[in-house]
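Sample intake sheet
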Amino acid sequence: MKNDFSQGKVWKNILAQSVPLLFAQLIQLLYNVVDRIYIGHLPDIGDMALTGIGLAFPLTTFIAAFTNLFGQGGTPLFSIARGAKEDKRAEKILGQSFMLLTVSSVIICILCMIFRKPVLYLFGASDESYVYADAYLKIYLLGTTFSMLSTGLNGFINAQGFPKTGMLTIFIGAALNLVLDPIFIFALDMGIEGAAIATVISQAVSAFWAVSFFFGKRTLFRIRKTSLIPDFKLIKSITALGLSGFIVQGTNCMVQAVCTRTLREFGGDMYVGVMTVINSVRDIFTLPIQSLTGGSQPVIGYNYGAKKYARVRSGIKFMALVGIAYTMVAWVVVLAFPHAIVSIFTSDEELIELGAHALGIYFFGFCFMALQFTGQSSFTALRCTKRAIFFSLLRKAIIVVPLTIMLPRLGMGADGVFTAEPISNVVGGLACFTTMFFTLYRKIPKEDLAT
């Protein structure tokens, strides 16, 4: 019964999906965060190397955007098909997503390799910081296919009711990365290149584990040759639903590029390093709310497909309440210990002081992020594609980017870059949640209509 989300308490089903997903994503986060911690503490070059990593962020986020497009686009459709007992359609969705992830990863790798130099300078690299950004990126890009498959396919493992297996997909690679990082960076004295090599090897192992699951005995749905033949109608459905997640990461890519360029103009390379630290802290503290909403989607989608609407309402309500409570606690922690948090990533005193000040600005109103995540996830889970896309664009492209460009030029300097985020959290979060509540949640029947 663990694979049937229409049975048992909804909140228990959500937690059963979310908790292993939390550990899996936490471990996955270690891929990048551990690299930044080691690199930030490199003797003499740590602050500049950290800046180089920050300059590479937009391209790594660009890769994540396509992972979301085909991975997150396929998973809700897969869950709804499962709930409706349309097994052949579910397996076809899995095969199409696998094909799309594989083909797009190869194309992205080639294009990024060719254009990485002009793109890095466009993002605000100086001659000094470019050396470190390029050294990391040209190796990291070799693992594009591994990264996209391990992350993109993991949602299909979780959606079948195997969250622990999904957690192992990431755990195996991340544990290997933790071991390999100090070996390549320090023992073999390879520095920033060593961090990239360790990451690629680890991603390759994770990808092999994820793909092999769908050819094993436990999976309920397999990757079959017949499912890999392009079905353009299904591809359109997958990309339409994944467009929201794609835009979220795509706009993140744009925001990161605008931020690094603006920070270098108004603060210099040191402020790009500060933003690298802040991005790392944000990734850590948004992880639980992402896991909660990510674990809720297959449960909500499954029950919607099974026409158990009362359970859909219950799932959305639980997701919202727990999300708001968590983000309130996280906000307090960041405000109470900013210096201690930043010092995890660097031993440079100037960078710590600048980072602690920026952190207090950036995380103001962090609790409103829960409203954005809840609304966005509800729209995605229930195939409200247009609204999901709009609110993805609203917070980042319509609010953050213009403010990031304008506020520093209105006399706020580098602080203006960090101020744009909390403004977008409040405005975007309230708008997204309110719209979801009145146009979606209130229209879902209160009674369980399943027969």
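Comment: The chain has one domain: 10-443. The mean pLDDT is 88.
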